[in-house]
Amino acid sequence: AAAVLAEVIKAFGAPENAQRMEEARDNACNDMGKMLQFLLPVATQIQQDVIKAYGFSNDGEGGL
Fold first, then answer.
1. How many domains does the chain have?
2. Distance between CA 52 and CA 37 in Å, rounded?
3. 53 Cβ contact partners less than 8 Å away, ≥ 6 residues apart
């Protein structure tokens, strides 16, 4: 589990993913509802891209 977490954290730090997160954050304009609308899907996709390599399903259940 620690290896998966380390890979997810590393993925969030990758320049292309950091840019995607920043763009989503900018689009949300500090509005909590918009954060859920714009930021959460990007964060979830980044996480799912990593965890599927460890045998977790590439859906909402795999992320939980």
1. 1
2. 23
3. 7
Alpha-carbon dihedral of residues 27, 7, 62, 23, nearest 10 degrees? 10
Nearest-angstrom CA–CA distance, 52 and 33: 28
Q: Retrieve residue 28's tokens.
A: 């949300």
Q: State if pTM tops 0.90.
A: no
Domain that holds residue 22: 2-63
Evaluate whether 21 touches 42 at the Cβ level (below 8 Å).
yes
- What's residue 38's pLDDT? 94
Per the CB < 8 A criterion, the answer to whether 8 and 53 are in contact is no
Question: What CA–CA distances, in Å, run from 15 to 1, 43, 46?
Answer: 24, 14, 12
